[in-house]
Amino acid sequence: MAENQLTVQVGQYSRKGAHDTNADSYGVMCPSGRTLELKGIAAAIADGMSTSTAAKEASETSVKSFLCDYLDAPESWAIKTAASRILSATNRWLHGQSHSRFENGMDMVTTFSGLILQGGEASIFHIGDSRIYRLRQGELKQLTRDHTLRSAGGHEHLAKALGADVHIAVDHRSEVLKSGDVFLFTTDGVHSVLSNQQLQETLATHCDDPDTCAKTIVEKADMAGSADDMSCQIIVVEEVGQAKEDTHLKALAELPFPPPLKAGMTLDGYRIIRELYASPRSQVYLVADEETGGKFVLKTPSDNFEDDATYLELFSREEWIAQTAASPNIVTAPTNNRPRNFLYTVFEYIDGQTLRQWLSDRQEPSLPDTRDIIAQIISGVRVLHRKEIIHQDLKPENILIDQDGTLKIVDFGSAYILGFENGNDTPERASNYGMGTIDYLAPEVVLGGKPSPASDLYSVAAIAYHMLTGKLPYGTGLNGKQDVQQATYVSARRLNKNVPYWMDKALEKGVSVTPENRQLALSELLQDLTAANPRFERQHTAFIEKNPVVFWKSCTGILILIIGALLF
Length: 568
What we know:
Layout: E1 7-15, E2 24-29, H1 33-39, E3 41-47, H2 55-72, H3 79-101, E4 112-118, E5 121-127, E6 131-136, E7 139-142, E8 148-150, E9 156-158, E10 171-176, E11 182-186, H4 188-191, H5 196-206, H6 210-223, E12 230-239, H7 248-253, E13 266-267, E14 270-278, E15 282-289, E16 295-301, H8 309-324, E17 345-348, E18 352-354, H9 355-362, H10 367-386, E19 389-390, E20 399-402, E21 407-409, E22 416-417, H11 427-431, H12 443-446, H13 453-469, H14 481-486, H15 492-495, H16 501-510, H17 522-530, H18 543-546, H19 548-567
Antiparallel strand pairs: 1-12, 2-3, 3-4, 4-5, 5-10, 6-7, 6-11, 8-9, 11-12, 13-14, 14-15, 15-16, 16-17, 18-20, 19-22, 20-21
Helix pairs in contact: 2-3, 5-6, 10-13, 10-17, 16-17
């Protein structure tokens, strides 16, 4: 067992009540290795509503979907984001099935209580009247609240459940996780007849053997006269483990810096061919893998930041982002199990040129070429956004074009990861470590606001404007509050008459200083740059713009007539 790794013991037991079928379901997902470090351990229990025709199918589906889909969710998603999206999708499916397969729309309804142990926290997600308790230092605490209503006759009925409505509000709470914590999951067939005191005493007596404890609790409920299905699941936490951002990223960051590298040297099996680029923040080399012969790009941190923990963490993330956001338009990072003795990152080698160099060779690219480039940028950025990653430094220098014309987005040193918000990732923190280049950076980020997909949309629109005009939409980058307040959009048509009026208006919308005034999504921006949006059609065209030669000739003629009249 790895040192300080999350470890648990699990116990489960279920018995059907008076019905023919046991409508309860439960399960635990205990992965291993890197998946355990990134995902943690997930558990769930569900109780299909007894009046539902497909109660068992509903409960079983909710548990399986939660456990399996959480395992497959992007690693960059926050736990709450992943669980909420999974449960929302499951709810819509159950509700849809109820209406398409059955008559009354309530035939696939279930309670649900889920738990995710990860990063030193216990995250609870709940709807209905199944329960999760925690036993800590001999005290039992109910962590969920029952969603029930009491009728005039004294009977309790479910007020909320998965599948009952097209929209749901799932309870969520997070608790600090401690070694020795015991989590108890029960359906109402158990806790409706056993008091908290009885549950607490049984747990205290048998928690060293979770299976025996779960069976004992169910048997006590049966003996107490429960007529409902009775299910119990117990999770005993032995070791808490480490926080998400302190796993493989932290292990990388703790490695020593490489020595100064020169052509011909070898570093952990990579032979240095030549230096490609150097800055105050990093050095980039073209290398060859001595095992495979393949060419890669190896990036090393600058000695200027050797004692800067935040810089080291952000540096280590770059390779992880490239591995996580797989796309033909994002640079890839190879995965191998070769041990590393130094801190560096490795990426695929792109035999091509930057977009900046590509533009220098063409001066004024055609509209079709511009659209193709922007479409590829958007394709890559959308993958990042689906992983909840904001690039924050989209610019011509960070876009490579290979010999086949395929575009690759590179350099994730300024990336902001929404899924790490529960840790120390803040806009202010990122801004101190190479936040994007001002020329293409969204005004709200320049002013210290939180990055969002709209921030990257601004950068993409600014790149499109630059490709068509050779300039920036406001003449220069917006560096500060005063620049933002005084910003005046320079029409792209003033600089390039080949730009259609509607495309100019689409660009103006995309680079609006107010995020809410931009297109709602990158796909909308691409559509606006591809085909004329009726909203951007010109109502009236000034005569000077329609036919400037005739306009000025007419003005000259009129002026001559006026002068002649004055003279004679």
